[in-house]
Amino acid sequence: MATPASGEQLAPNAAVIVFLAFALAYFLSALVRAITATLSPTLSVELSLNASDLGLLAGGYFFGFALTQLPLGNWLDRHGPRKVILGFLSVAVLGCAAFAMANSFAGLLAARVLTGMGVSACLMAPLTGYRRWLNPATQLRANSWMLMTGSLGMVAATLPVQWLMPMTGWRGLFWALAVLIGFSMVAIAVAVPAWRTSGATPGSDTEPPAASSKGYGLIWRHPYFRQMLPIGFVNYGGMVAVQTLWAGPWMVNVAGYSAQQAAAGLFGINLSMLTAFWLWGVINPRLARRGLAPERLIAWGLPLSFGVLLSIVWLGEGAGWLLWALFCVSSTFVALSQPAVALALPAEAAGRALSAFNLAIFAGVFVVQWGIGLLIDALALLGWSEPAQYRGAVAIFGFCCVLAYLGFLRAYRQRAHA
Hints:
mainly alpha, single chain, two-stranded antiparallel sheet
């Protein structure tokens, strides 16, 4: 088992082993999250799902995810990453098995909610550990490379899933995922160090003030957290909603792709995201050393995604996977907000800070995924053509992204001049 080197800092070799163990679990959680985009044509035909059903099914994962975030933060701060993630992953195994056995939309939805609850610690647990085990610049790199691992899972959820479908069927895929998640639990149990339950420094008999309070008042009142909240909910949540669901149906129903072509397009999108997060991991420590704060980079870079969304709405049928990949990549600036929130608050409150912010992100994913589906169905009732329905829904989503960014920018400027 890996042990901290000095104080709570991990030695480099131990840090790599711990990262790989957590990365395997996060890879699988991202694969489970994104698989509905690839399976959407099959599930729509087999279960006669409309757009709002499909959005609700995909969003059910994020609803389950969001349900656990507040208690998860307290448990992480109190019991540590290893113990918490092992308990949660056992629920994920049950969720995947339940999905494989479901015979109705209600059964699938319940299984997705259960699975979302089970994998909800797969990013928060390692990030909480990294807050104590790694220095700040390395934390930024580790966060980006964890997200890169997630993108690799989403890549695996595209063409590889499409290739396996004829051999295993979608039920067989979920049985295999249940087994693989069980294997990741073994890796974490062996590799991840135990947690010192007190937030105090070594040798101290008392906890610091931040650790002695287990509530979320410190988090919700913090000005930095509140500054990042709008873009976490709308922009970050919207990026994930597009990547894990709506880019696929757009390619099929608007751009005229076949199911195989859409899977290839999703593969390209997720490969682009993998590359983007790898590059962020490479350059983040250098940016930190130069004093370029995450909020400054977000203020400069995030507006690029609005221009891409405008192009997608304008081009309609001509907007294929390349533009959606460009939208997702240009939105990755907002991913800098996650480790920045953890660093802005005390290390003893890292679990609560990360989980509260993650709650905002995944609540946003659920709202955007289901909301776009509801908008598409609503515009259909008005007699709009199918491409026009999608264009209208994406246009409204883009408008909400701009409003959230303006809320962030206002708070950022106020704090900068305070």
